[in-house]
Amino acid sequence: MRKKRWPVGVVLAVGIALTTGCSGDGRDNSSKPAPKATSAETARVILYKEEIAKALPTPDAVPPGWETAGEPRLFNDTGESGRLAFGRTGYRAPDLDGAVGFSISSYSGTADAMAGFSEFKAQYGDATRPTSIVGADQAFARSGCITERACSATIVVRAGSVVLMVNINSDAGEAPDPKILNSVSRMQVARAQQVERGEAPTAKAS
User: Fold this and answer.
1) Paired strand residues for 58
2) Over the chain, what is the mean pLDDT?
3) Cβ atoms within 10 Å of 46's Cβ, excluding its own
4) What pLDDT is stored for residue 13 in this prediction?
């Protein structure tokens, strides 16, 4: 089977919706808007770009043989839509014949995260289906092909006030089963929750 090295710009082509609502030029908005945390949320660590950088998977957290694809993208958001920060990174996954991208959006509270999750789901329309990921409050999956050699699968998860997306772009000739992303999705959720609790992110894909 032909294996293609995907450029980092392609890693999140299908998941680009996660950047909707951020500062238009993608620049670092270093000022941190005050989160609207409820009493139940005050104990958690708010994920701004520095914390998201820790939560994104490191090379030792992804499956063996995966290679980094470019530099992570991180920025603090304006907070106007309730989103406080965003980060993403990508890996080439030879065993899956494609490239896998990870994105994290941090919100000021659960209500804003629920609204953001619903917006992402609406953008995929009828192509989504519910799925179950350990640690997630909400999750959906989708898969499909844009062309015969441009297929993808995506899992989007809400865990508290954080929305995470894992997606794969593949040239294998058919839409990947989103289940191949279950392990790394569980890992990404666990790492984000560890950072929120003030712990070192140690979760790895199993």
Assistant:
1) none
2) 83
3) 18
4) 36
- The structure tokens listed for 24 are 């238009």
Distance, in Å, from the CA atom of 118 to the CA atom of 192, rounded to the nearest integer, reads 20
Task: Give the global pTM.
Answer: 0.80
Indicate the SS3 state at residue 107: strand
Residue indicated by tokens 């629920």: 114
Mean pLDDT is lowest, of 38-47, 117-126, 172-181, for 38-47
Q: How many CA atoms lie within 13 A of 34 on its CB side?
A: 2
What does the pLDDT look like over 63-92, one tens digit per residue? 999 999 989 999 999 878 899 999 999 999
Residues 6+ apart with CB under 8 A from 139: 130, 131, 132, 133, 155, 156, 157, 158, 185
Residue pointed to by tokens 């998941």: 15
Distance from the Cα of residue 200 to its chain's centroid: 19
